[in-house]
Write a structure and sequence with these properties.
The complex is a heterodimer of chains A (164) and B (739). Chain A is built from five helices and five strands; from the N terminus they run ββαβββαααα. Chain A is an alpha+beta fold and 164 residues long. The model of chain A has no long low-confidence stretch (mean pLDDT 96). The chains are: A alpha+beta (164), B alpha+beta (739). Chains A and B meet through α2, α3, α4 and α5 of A and α1 and α17 of B.
Chain lengths: 164, 739
């Protein structure tokens, strides 16, 4: 059975018919051709497919597309604004938090959800906030460093923004 | 001189943080079909009959293939005991009995469920002990003798022996194996995928398709991790995609689910290791006897009866120590379990667990600090290993132990002894390891081709593969030093077997080393050719010109020409081959040129009530010869160490008569953010004179010792010696309480 849903992805409005069993991941990758979001387990155990739905991080591989009706989705393709990288993307490059890059889109989205909620997270908050994202290459150390760096730069920027 | 302090970003990081990197599954090709396999429901027996009727009726199913539909050899490799592409004789749960192509993955999977297979089930053999009893299941038995073992043990004041067990574990590269095969009407077939042995891919696929090798082209996509697994496992998905593609004459993406990947992909060999080591009262090792049993699983893979794991057991069985009398018996056994293959330093983490556990026990028996005991016995430059390898230079194990221990603050942490509080027990431990770099034989070769582009930049093709380890960054950096131009002017490409040279596998921690050696030769030729070219333009002898920073200068006048102008003068817009370098290891070479060494230090606590083990601190000290890129190196070292920590604490393919009971990331757990301790790294730069800038490969040495250091720290905390990895509740009950 098909259902008509209305939603936004990375700021763009869509109206689309989906079946009851379509996952958000399939909608993003197959229908909208947004291939940045990755599938690594398909069972919600690794976080590679993480995207934000109304600001909350979800595993899109086990999240039904029906549930985004009336909501806004943000994927890794929507992180940079007007050609400028997000602080997290910049910090991931600078701190060497990227290796094979397969977990990276999901890591970035979970990290964004974390920083939106806790602009200056403790290391403990980072570890718990990203515990649902698995990485086999890095051993996590440089990802933690990147999130700390991004948080610092973001708060400095917002401070300057308020001052000026 | 090479400036290693420069903080160089990974060259392809930008495309990976923006979601633009293209992995195989991201490809969009019109008319694409999806391929899946129907896997066996038994681990040993025969297929009596396959009923395809219901499956074929599913709308959207294009083709279902059985063994008789394979035009060429139904084997993944040249040995008769290699893995069949489609099986009628079943040897493990990962055998495929049919292949299906359909208009969507969903349709293909639905059809797979409807394929009815009638099996004749047989009793399988699963354990190492069962396989040893049955003489037919011994694939290979290797021996090595050094010195006089009996005399050695007679001279020993202390002898410790024990039997150690290590599990099958999975690579868990986050990108599952996948391949897209695109057939052309003229009979050619292009495979898009990720593979650590790109040049071998056309050979394997053409044998299965029974076509000339030249008909097959392989193009490498971005790869989501490999760790040794994307050799055989990549060939398999490519062969299956190719078969379906030529039968349907449409492009086919062959996909595996995570469960199917864990069911059918290669594993680290399960091992049983009996080790007996003796030492004198003065703390000098006197003798070592090892019996190593490796569970190969159902089929032979790369290396045939001498797979990399067995070969490395041979060259590494003593650990990085000076032992005058040693003997090895190593056995490779066939069972009805998943196939074992290459995984980060194949064979060596298993050995390390046995050797490093006994090293600690000997130190305790001799009332010595485990670190001091090791330092008395580590190999030094100028010595010859038990296997007869002369270690000319770059033996950084002593320095790794010393620098690592200082960073860890070993003396004060260890002297506090096992301690804790009412809730927990605390302990510290360490382990050392070595890993032979590259192949260590005369077949070791690599080639690089440098092209000058029309815009004055360079393109370099090597056929070596970026897996996420940072190879393209490191090779671009080396080329930039050799050519004297900024790194931004250099592009290192992904594999394309139609145009690349064959630099063999991107495995064995060899790509940085052999790629750099080939690039150095190619760069020398390129500079020579570009100078000659300029000389012809300007008029004069080549000796009247010199090369500096990507510009050819005249020695006699102010005349000079830059690369873009030089390229324009050729009158052609195509890439111009300006340098070709082929490096080949010495004829008759036997044994590694050098080893990479690591010493890891661990502090952990154990919950007194639940037994839960929490890692508190980890120091990774690794001898890399020379740091080429600190950022990617650190990622490799820490990532390796955490993989080994998973081997120590969590990871285990649980099998019941060959069936994997935990084929998913919930029940088979790898370390998470919350389980990683505070990690510090120190790199020892003891250069290897045979290599470019002295740099040794770095992807594997640190994947070896962490699990062993954890087991030693656990003993320090609890007094329980661990004989079986991982250290889980179930396995601890097998530990012996020290009197």
């Amino acid at each position: 059975m098909k259902h008509l849903i209305n939603f936004k992805v990375n700021g763009i409005s869509h109206s689309m018919e989906v079946t009851s069993n379509t996952t958000l991941l399939a909608l993003l990758r197959d229908s909208l051709k947004l291939k940045g979001t990755k599938k690594a387990c398909g069972t919600g155990d690794c976080g590679a497919c993480t995207v934000l739905v109304d600001g909350k991080a979800v595993n899109s591989c086990i999240y039904l597309a029906l549930n985004i009706d009336g909501k806004e989705v943000l994927t890794v393709e929507g992180l940079s604004k007007n050609g400028k990288l997000d602080f997290l993307q910049e910090a991931f490059i600078d701190e060497g938090a990227v290796q094979c890059g397969y977990c990276t889109p999901g890591m970035l989205m979970s990290a964004k959800a974390l920083l939106d909620e806790h602009p200056n997270p403790t290391e403990e908050q980072i570890r718990i906030g990203l515990a649902g994202n698995v990485c086999r290459c890095t051993g996590y150390e440089q990802i933690i460093q990147a999130i700390k760096t991004a948080a610092k730069k973001r708060s400095e920027y917002e401070f300057q923004d308020k001052e000026s | 001189m090479y400036a290693s302090s420069t903080k160089t970003r990974m060259v392809n990081a930008l495309e990976k943080v923006t979601g633009q990197a293209r992995f195989t599954e991201d490809l969009e090709i019109p008319g694409l079909l999806y391929g899946v396999a129907v896997y066996s429901n038994i681990s040993k027996g025969f297929v009596r009959k396959v009923d395809l009727e219901a499956a074929q009726k599913v709308p959207g199913v294009k083709k279902i293939l059985l063994p008789e539909n394979i035009p060429g050899r139904n084997l993944l490799g040249s040995h008769e005991l290699s893995h069949p592409i489609i099986s009628s004789k079943i040897n493990y749960f990962g055998d495929a009995v049919a292949l299906i192509a359909a208009e969507s993955e969903e349709i293909a999977r639905k059809a797979a469920c409807l394929v009815k297979v009638d099996y004749e089930e047989k009793e399988g053999i699963y354990t190492i002990d069962e396989a040893m009893e049955n003489g037919d299941l011994l694939f290979n038995h290797l021996q090595h003798f050094h010195g006089d073992i009996e005399a050695g043990f007679e001279k020993s004041d202390v002898i410790i022996d024990g039997t150690y067990f290590t599990p099958f574990i999975d690579h868990i590269y986050l990108e599952r194996e996948s391949a897209l095969a695109l057939p052309e009407p003229n009979g050619r077939l292009t495979i898009y995928g990720g593979c650590q042995e790109p040049y071998h891919m056309p050979t394997v696929v053409s044998e299965v398709l029974n076509c000339p090798r030249e008909q097959i082209r392989f193009i490498g996509m971005s790869m989501g991790g490999a760790f040794g697994g994307k050799s055989e496992d990549s060939f398999m998905v490519a062969c299956r995609a190719a078969l379906l593609a030529v039968h349907c004459m449409r492009p086919v993406l062959f996909v595996v689910s995570r469960e199917e990947s864990m069911r059918s992909s290669t594993k680290r060999h399960e091992a049983k290791l009996y080790y007996k080591i003796g030492a004198s009262k003065q703390g000098e090792l006197t003798a070592l006897e090892a019996r190593v049993y490796l569970n190969k699983g159902a089929y032979l893979g790369s290396g045939g009866k001498l797979p990399p794991a067995l070969n490395r057991v041979y060259w590494h069985y003593t650990g990085p120590y000076r032992i005058p009398n040693t003997v090895l018996n190593a056995y490779l056994l066939r069972t009805n379990n998943p196939c074992s293959g290459q995984m980060r330093s194949p064979g060596v983490p298993q050995i390390c667990f046995a050797v490093e556990s006994i090293m600690d026990q000997l130190a305790e028996a001799l009332n010595m600090d485990p670190l001091e005991f090791r330092l008395k016995n580590v190999l030094e430059a100028g010595e010859v290993t038990a296997n007869g390898i002369y270690l000319k230079d770059s033996v950084g194990i002593r320095e790794a132990i010393q620098k690592g221990s200082r960073l860890f603050d070993w003396d004060s942490r260890r002297s506090r002894g096992s301690q804790g509080d009412t809730q927990t027990l605390k302990g510290v431990g360490m382990a050392s390891s070595w890993h032979g770099i590259s192949y260590g034989n005369e077949k070791d070769t690599a080639e690089a081709r440098i092209f000058l582009l029309h815009n004055g930049k360079f393109l370099i093709r090597t056929g070596l593969v970026e897996l996420g380890q940072g190879l393209q960054t490191v090779l671009a950096r080396v080329a930039s030093e050799e050519l004297g131009v900024p790194m931004e002017q250099i592009t290192i490409t992904s594999p394309d077997t139609d145009i690349d040279p064959d630099s063999k596998n991107t495995t064995s921690s060899r790509a940085t080393v052999v790629g750099s050696l080939a690039i150095r030769l190619a760069a020398q030729e390129a500079i020579k050719n570009l100078i000659s070219h300029a000389a012809r333009l300007k008029g004069g002898a080549a000796s009247d010109f010199f090369w500096k920073g990507g510009i050819v200068h005249s020695k006699n006048s102010a005349w000079s020409i830059n690369l873009a102008d030089l390229a324009a003068q050729t009158g052609s817009e195509r890439p111009l081959l300006v340098g070709n370098g082929k490096w080949q290891d010495k004829a008759g070479k036997k044994g590694y040129t050098t080893y990479g060494y690591a010493a890891h230090f661990v502090e952990l606590e154990v919950d007194r009530k639940t037994g839960y083990i929490k890692l508190l601190r980890l120091v990774v000290a690794q001898d890399v010869g020379k740091v080429l890129n600190y950022q990617t190196l650190k990622g490799q070292a820490i990532g390796s160490a955490m993989m080994s920590a998973g081997y120590g604490l969590l990871e285990n393919i649980i099998l019941e008569k060959g069936k994997i009971l935990n084929p998913n990331l919930r029940d088979y757990r790898i370390p998470l953010f919350t389980e990683c301790p505070s990690i510090k790294c120190v790199f020892i730069e003891d250069p290897c004179s045979e290599y470019v800038f002295g740099a040794k490969g770095a992807g594997e040495p640190s994947a070896v010792p962490t699990a062993s250091a954890i087991a030693n720290a656990y003993y320090n905390a609890t007094g329980l010696r661990i004989y079986r990895l991982p250290i889980t509740q179930e396995n601890i009950t097998g530990g012996k309480k020290q009197a």
